[in-house]
Amino acid sequence: MIVNQLVKKDASCRALEQSPQMVAAVVRTMQNTNDMETARHAAGILHNFSHHRDGMLAIFKSGGIPALVRMLSSPVESILFYAITTLHNLLLHQEGAKMAVRLADGLQRMVPLLKKSNVKFLAITTDCLQLLAYGNQESKLIILANGGPAALVHIMRNYNYEKLLWTTSRVLKVLSVCPSNKPAIVEAGGMQALGIHLSSSSPRLVQNCLWTLRNLSDAATKEVRLSVPQSPASLLHLWTHDGTAVELLPYSPWDTSSIL
User: Fold this and answer.
1) Could you tell me how far CA 150 lies from the centroid of its own chain?
2) Taking residues 56-63, what's their average pLDDT?
3) CB-based contacts of 199: which residues, under 8 Å, 6+ apart?
4) Are 227 and 191 in contact (CB under 8 A)?
5) Which pairs count as long-range contacts for 150-156, CB under 8 Å and 24+ apart, including other chains?
6) pLDDT tens by residue, 224-257
């Protein structure tokens, strides 16, 4: 409790995270205690440490990643939020964190969390999935094996929080170049769910949806026609009216080659 209060002050937090023994003790406490309140305080301490480079390195070296992954099964919402946000910081900024999360079965713990309803929590979780899946075929297959495509499509259909839709579309874009995930996305209604957002006011969301539809087109030509009523010319117009858009003109809109 006292340490948890101290780490909320930047100077105290930076001093404490310099002690490998202190960080290791917090990790041990979090993973060994049966008291949810103690676990919550420990997870909160690691969350504060993860705001600094030295703190992230200390968490990584102390075996904090496997402990945080285990916390993703906690029934306490605040512990879940601390765990996923701390892991997110590590995935973004700590070298070796992605491999450590994969080895700790982090993907197997994260995909079921897509059933949660807190949009900010879901946005962080989907961004973690994208970071882990990008460029890693094994991670894509693990997401598939745990029902990820259907859960991601469900989010695209049922939420309107732009950041969540954007992070979810990024995961689908990564999965859409995987031959095993393509049919699963299509069967879950992914073409239609992506098509819903082509008229969005968010250029980055529209861009991701178009790229994903393009990647999926060889797996579901009929679904493309049903869910994307625009002609190829109008798709190019949607894509290029924004100044930051990627040039698609050298390609067929239904080109099946990978863009990742």
Assistant:
1) 15
2) 96
3) none
4) yes
5) 150/184, 150/188, 151/111, 151/114, 151/115, 152/114, 152/126, 152/185, 152/190, 153/185, 153/188, 153/189, 153/190, 153/193, 154/114, 154/188, 155/114, 155/122, 155/126, 156/190, 156/193, 156/194, 156/196, 156/197
6) 444 454 444 445 445 444 444 433 333 333 333 3
